[in-house]
Amino acid sequence: MRVCVGTIVHHPEDVRIAHRQIRALLDAGHQVTYVAPFTHCNVTPPPEVRAVDVPRAVGLRRGKALRAARAALSRGCQDADLLLVHDVELLLALPRRRPVTVWDVHEDTREVLEAEAYLPRPLRPVLPPLIGALERRAERRLHLILAEESFRDRFPGGHPVVPDLSYVPSAPPPPPGDDRLVYVGRISRARGAVEMIELARRLRPYRIRLDLIGPADAGVRPLLRDAQREGLLDWFGHVPNTHALRMAEGALAGLSLTHDVPAYRHASPTKVIDYMAHGLPVITTPQPGAVALVTEAGCGTVVPFPIGSATGISAADNTAGSPAGTATGISAADGTVEATVRAVLALRDDPEGRAAMGARGHAEALRRFHWPVHAAEFVAQLERWAQAPDRITARTRGRALTA
């Protein structure tokens, strides 16, 4: 099977796209053409794929990227049996002549837009209905894959769920250390950037440092650079996922201090699963999925949300323009930071307890969340669609590809 995979929004090394789905297709012996913003992200395409470079769609000016994407997808689809797109934006750039087409729904686009600080307020009430209409049209005309069970409320057509799982080492990872915290993933205000900077400040007297591994939104980059110059933390920027998780091993704990915003409320706790897979105790705010995992496995601590973070838009941008350490940037986060400091010091002072947490988390992740166990069904689903291009997604209740 020849598959054309396309994104203009996500990083070319996006974990779901590159490290799970494309890797599963290649391992199954299929050929992959990958349309992605390689140059923009300074990424060398892997030799196993046929790469087509496109501009990245960033902020509000996406017309150039969409025009380039339409031409690139046309090229990539010339000999393809299936087209797999990963952005709602690409629904506007699909070539007229194309093979059977699948849209992988990563996130609730409307809720994510509500949390984006860059979006002008006049556009906030206008875009969600337009996105909704585009989604309904896509559901009628394309095959869909959902990343979350909760997306069935928006897409009731019985689409298969392909959750974000992890590559879990079969051997136990090294035990947690006592002098380093780690965060892996995109860094933004709604993901706890301000709280983590203040946490690093308050832990400095205890000689516990913070490593932030991942790209950052434009609004928090100055705060991170200032904190790094001050010696509060190390910010490594984007690191390929497999290397980032190896860097995380041996830390005292992994952080997930997301705010209580709609976009994260029903999301799969992928970050928590990754920390568990690599033997790290978890410190998380009380997102439902994260709480369920941490409490069931006994592998971490739950700390409160920042005060006022449930207000949606304001949670994402209520500290816009405020330097780290000011009252505006820190007051709402203070309870979260204090609770996290206590959790960190308790783990530091209990080496046997944190080692047991790490071991329990790894065992649970290996039992339930190892991606290669589920990759074959993902590939088989695409093969079935490619072999029957005239069939549209069934309107019966779908079966989730879950553990």
What would you say this structure looks like, in words?
The protein is globular and about 60 Å long. Helices cover 39% and strands 13% of the residues. The strands form two sheets. The chain has a six-stranded parallel beta sheet with strand order 3-2-1-4-5-6, sandwiched between helices. A six-stranded parallel beta sheet has the order 9-8-7-10-11-12, with helices on both faces. The protein has two domains: 2-165 and 371-387, Glycogen Phosphorylase B (Rossmann fold, 3-Layer(aba) Sandwich), CATH 3.40.50.2000; 180-368, Rossmann fold (3-Layer(aba) Sandwich), CATH 3.40.50.2000. The chain is built from 15 helices and twelve strands. The chain has helices at residues 15-27, 63-76, 109-115, 127-141, 193-203, 221-229, 241-248, 262-265, 270-277, 288-297, 313-317, 327-330, 334-348, 351-368, 371-387, and strands at 2-6, 31-36, 50-53, 82-85, 100-105, 143-146, 180-184, 209-213, 233-235, 253-256, 282-284, 300-302. Helix 1 links the parallel strand 1 (2-6) and strand 2. It starts with a strand and ends in a 16-residue tail after the last helix. It has 403 residues and is of the alpha/beta class.
